[in-house]
């Protein structure tokens, strides 16, 4: 993949889904040649093709895929063809919803986001509203993408970080180590928190959900079993998932540099 994507902008209605977006989708959706049930109990095959009605059947590939069951198999090439068909509706969704000029990477990131959360959720999101209003800075875009963590799973967190990075980049994700470093941008973190493990081949990260080695993770003062470990600003900080000054179980509270910042982890 070339690392020279242009930062030029044009109307969203003129874009097709680009290679960077396709790479992101295939990486996070993952491929299965045979049927399985996803986390919501829905039969799925290929690159996240959900079997929910008779219209989801794939007779051209000899695959039965509907709410009653799923049988047959796909090659990766067939899976990518099916993914292209599945994405088409979300390409139209983004084309119709975005009223300002965007880059190819911004368009791709928005299509990936809409594909995952649904067209209706995308159309009603603060992310889209601020984009169309011209008030969406790179920092705010990162926050708005990463708010959407249904179930607060690590996989979704990595996906949202990667989408937000693609949105703010003019390059392919993973082109260089430097392109992987992004600020997590809590209000009080002053750019000290970074997250990078979503980038292919770039694993060094000062913001780690997985690197806590003892007692459930971080430094003193966190309730065991309810923390993540933050390495930032030269030390470790506790990330309590239900801090006293955060409003719900779908938040974390970061103690960093003497201040606290809350982040909504679920939409």
From TrEMBL:
One of its GO terms (biological process) is killing of cells of another organism. GO terms for molecular function: lysozyme activity. Keywords: Antimicrobial, Bacteriolytic enzyme, Glycosidase, Host cytoplasm, Hydrolase. It catalyses: Hydrolysis of (1->4)-beta-linkages between N-acetylmuramic acid and N-acetyl-D-glucosamine residues in a peptidoglycan and between N-acetyl-D-glucosamine residues in chitodextrins. SUPFAM superfamilies: Lysozyme-like (SSF53955). It comes from the Eukaryota. PANTHER family: LYSOZYME RRRD-RELATED, PTHR38107. This is Lysozyme. It comes from Triparma verrucosa.
């Amino acid at each position: 993949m070339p690392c020279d994507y242009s930062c030029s902008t044009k109307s969203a209605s003129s874009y097709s889904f680009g290679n960077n977006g396709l790479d992101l989708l295939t990486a996070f959706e993952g491929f299965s040649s045979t049927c399985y049930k996803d986390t919501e109990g829905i039969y799925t095959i290929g690159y996240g093709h959900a079997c929910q009605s008779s219209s989801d059947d794939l007779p051209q590939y000899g695959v039965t895929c509907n709410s009653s069951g799923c049988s047959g198999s796909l090659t990766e090439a067939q899976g990518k063809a099916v993914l292209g068909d599945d994405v088409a509706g979300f390409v139209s969704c983004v084309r119709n919803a975005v009223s300002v000029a965007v880059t190819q990477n911004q368009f791709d990131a928005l299509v990936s986001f809409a594909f995952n959360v649904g067209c209706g959720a995308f159309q009603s999101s603060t992310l889209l509203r601020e984009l169309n209003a011209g008030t969406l800075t790179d920092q705010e875009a990162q926050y708005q993408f990463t708010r959407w963590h249904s179930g607060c799973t690590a996989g979704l967190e990595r996906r949202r970080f990667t989408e937000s990075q693609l949105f703010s980049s003019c390059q392919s994700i993973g082109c260089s180590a430097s392109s992987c470093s992004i600020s997590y941008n809590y209000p009080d973190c002053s750019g000290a928190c970074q997250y990078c493990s979503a980038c292919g081949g770039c694993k060094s990260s000062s913001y780690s959900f997985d690197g806590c080695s003892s007692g459930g993770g971080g430094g003193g003062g966190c309730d065991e079993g309810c923390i993540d470990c933050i390495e930032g600003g030269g030390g470790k900080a506790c990330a309590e998932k239900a801090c006293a000054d955060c409003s719900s179980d779908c938040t974390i509270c970061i103690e960093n540099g003497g201040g606290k910042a809350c982040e909504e982890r679920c939409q």
